[in-house]
Amino acid sequence: MASILDILIIILDFVISVWNAYASGFNIGMMKKTRDEPSALQRVFSYAGLGLALVGMSYVLAIVLSFAGASFGYLDPGTVDLILAFDFLVFGILIIGLGIIITIQSIIIASQRKSIGNILGVVWNVFAGAWDIYSYASGFKQSVDILRREDRDRETDALIVIIVAVLISFFIVYAAYKHGYNKALGM
């Protein structure tokens, strides 16, 4: 059973994913609005934020959908374990990789525009990145073991849940991205 802290972390991850999508849309909209040719690095940072939003949202929704499916009797505990192990391994490594890019971006911004908000952003990103790496390293072996022992029947159900999570995530992230993009353009 999920603890209150687990639920709060999932809610926080959801909110951060929506914010990342909105901020990426806003950044991309501002690049278009100013008509300055953005550097390749600026584009990488903006699209990394968008990618992180999609991956983070997919991670959260896969967890929520798997527990909801189990609660309503559609998924057995072994299938939930399989979904969570896959979710952890695949989305987890993507979150770490994209998070490192975002952390580098926040360090660059904080070094250029020294403010308490930017510095706190760097502190948060470094903490979150370190926590993600620690959690990934701690749970890697257990997740791999779960994936190795699962049978084919559960894989189909798990894959369906993951695909549904990614599709729902795409629409949520797109809506937040589009809102940020339109806001930057004054629409």
Please provide a written account of the structure.
This protein is mainly alpha-helical and 187 residues long. 89% of the residues lie in helices and 0% in strands. α2 packs across α5. The model has no long low-confidence stretch (mean pLDDT 87).
List the helices and strands and how they pair.
Blueprint (H helix, E strand, L loop, with lengths): L3 H31 L5 H32 L5 H36 L3 H34 L2 H34 L2
User: Average pLDDT, to the nearest integer?
Assistant: 87
Helicity range: over 70%
Residue windows where pLDDT falls under 50 for at least 5 positions: none
Q: How can the largest sheet be summarized?
A: none
Over the alpha carbons, how many angstroms does the gyration radius reach? 18 Å
Percentage of residues in DSSP E strands: under 5%
Number of helical segments with 4 or more residues: 5
Gross morphology is globular
Distance between the termini: 44 Å
Give the SSE order as H and E letters. HHHHH
DSSP summary, beta strand count: 0
- SS content category: mainly alpha
Query: Can you tell me the number of structural domains?
Result: 1
